[in-house]
Amino acid sequence: MSPKFRRLQRMEGDDNVRAWRSHAIKKRKARDGFGACHVKAKDADDGKFLVLLQAKERMLREDPKRSGQEDATDEQLRRLLLLAASAIDADHADAAIDALVDLYQHASLHGHPMQRVMAYFADGLAARILTDSSPFYRSIMAHPTPEEEFTGFTELYRASPCYQFAHFTANQTIVEAFEAEEKQNGRRLYVIDFDVSYGFQWPSLIQSLCDKATTSKPISLHLTGFGRSTEELKNTETRLVGFSKSCSNLEFVYNGLLRGSTTSDLKIEKNATLAVNLVFYLQTMKSSSEMLATLMSIHSLNPSVVVLAEKEISQRPAGYSARFVESSLNYFAAMFRSLHDCLPADSLGRLSIEKNHLGREIKSAITCNCEKTSAWKGRMESTGFQGMKLSSRSVSQAKLLLKIKGQFSTIEHVSNSGFGISETDDGRTLSLCLQDRNLITVSAWKCTR
């Protein structure tokens, strides 16, 4: 271990942040070009930010093999990241910049998983200390084009079982709710999806219902999806309607609504099984009051089932970067490790996933000043919902998905490599995990009076 990281291990508190700052400034000036840029800057603060920009650009120019450079260990990278986050929380911008410069030196978009995830965490923390009008800030937080976003999501959906696990498990629960009320509601299913996104969840449900439909017993599926833009909703409609045309004896109706619309805008069919889909939605809520209002409006609809899927990642409360970084780093590191096993380091698909999807999630979460919301389980119970036990079919389906992907670990034990499935809360939750880290958890709920 280098002397620098031995010193870093001994540092805690503001006094040590200042000590690290002094050490880092001396070392920074010795770097090629960095000291000169700092001196030539018209304003001292501008000079320090310029050093940060140069460090970022230097990382982007690095040879993918990083020849001749000693790689930091995962633990050393983690300590540098937490030091930068703690300095930001303490309003020590100078110390944060110095730590981020060092982090950029060891981060890489082409290195091992921790090096790659650190590059995006460093970007998010750098954006925290820059003004919105800064060109560097705009460069860091530049949104991918809709086409790039779609490509990144599509590549992730193909390479990783994460989203498929959530979607297939949710759909299995919806199908079982439909089967339980089939005689009562005349084979009619109405689904409300609060975040329809690209609609990738629904072809498997359409196919499942199509397999059940017959000429004498047709099935009606009405899907209402909330989306971010009119264009996204139209594209999703085109994909889903096109897919449903191949399904005989299934009547499929799609209705897209922009986010911000209320449940009063819904035209819910009578005598239909009503399912509400909250897959990856609650964590997009920016306040507890917004979440409470949403859940109360859903409860008023008295759905047959509410399906919830959440990523096992904390929401960053306003003003606290360090706690969010510490709690969320394991989740994203696991995601990056899983891609490392699925795709080669030089894969353009992997780079698209990390840049346009996972990296964007990291930076958005760090820079969003969100009110801390309570855990989804407590919030569901407090608004009149009761957890339901997931069926053995859901568990078997999840296992089969991982076997197909070739990355299955037994449910009793998760090995050092590959994904696994775990049941908790007496079978009321089903989680996809990697090693000892839960990544995504699915649960089902019913209304109580």
UniProtKB/TrEMBL annotation:
Residues 367-446 are annotated as: SAW. Keywords: Transcription, Transcription regulation. It comes from the Eukaryota. GO terms for biological process: regulation of DNA-templated transcription. One of its GO terms (molecular function) is sequence-specific DNA binding. It holds the Pfam family GRAS. InterPro entries: TF_GRAS (IPR005202). GO terms for cellular component: nucleus. Belongs to the GRAS family. This is (wild Malaysian banana) hypothetical protein.
